[in-house]
Amino acid sequence: xxxxxxxxxxxxxxxxxxxxxxxxxxxxxxxxxxxxxxxxxxxxxxxxxxxxxxxxxxxxxxxxxxxxxxxxxxxxxxxxxxxxxxxxxxxxxxxxxxxxxxxxxxxxxxxxxxxxxxxxxxxxxxxxxxxxxxxxxxxxxxxxxxxxxxxxxxxxxxxxxxxxxxxxxxxxxxxxxxxxxxxxxxxxxxxxxxxxxxxxxxxxxxxxxxxxxxxxxxxxxxxxxxxxxxxxxxxxxxxxxxxxxxxxxxxxx
Length: 253
Hints:
Blueprint: E1 17-19, H1 24-32, E2 38-39, H2 44-47, H3 55-60, H4 72-86, E3 93-103, E4 106-108, H5 114-124, E5 128-138, E6 152-163, H6 168-176, E7 197-201, H7 204-208, H8 212-221, H9 230-240, H10 245-248
């Protein structure tokens, strides 16, 4: 991406930025902001050895109509806390994110198999669902308070997505591409699954998995302002993928 003509901002911290996620989509989106970062993944959810959540973290979680264990901001915090522990709390700015798809109060995580993916897409067909992406940033540059222990900032992006009516042939053809396999809700808006989407109300990048507007704000507060303005780089990114930014960016980046 050519970003030489985009607004640039200087950073004010020498701390390393670490993305606590293995998601290639989050890696690609974070790179748009122009900050150097490394990746340190966490498998805390897969390991299942979930430590008790500190009361201040529970109190600071943004409201989300899902069971606590499915709360994407809590999941994001768990990833960050796990990476912090792995690094023996060496100073760094850590960023974690997690996404869940919710339809009529039911959480749709990644499908177990093609049949499960088909069932999910059949449920989503012709309906509006909500994609929640939780974000956690932890940095020693953020002053502690009862709501942000250990420099933690918590946020949540809530975005309504309308899926077009889908017939079985369309669903099966999409599943055959393999794209739904590792996607919450069994579709990826940034890929072929974008053809199934009629409308997004909220943050397009939040639906992809990393709400750039929120991330920009949290990193700036942590003393690491991104180089590029999120809306401008997201427009360029969408154009590179052959998507119409005017159709995708109805509200927030």
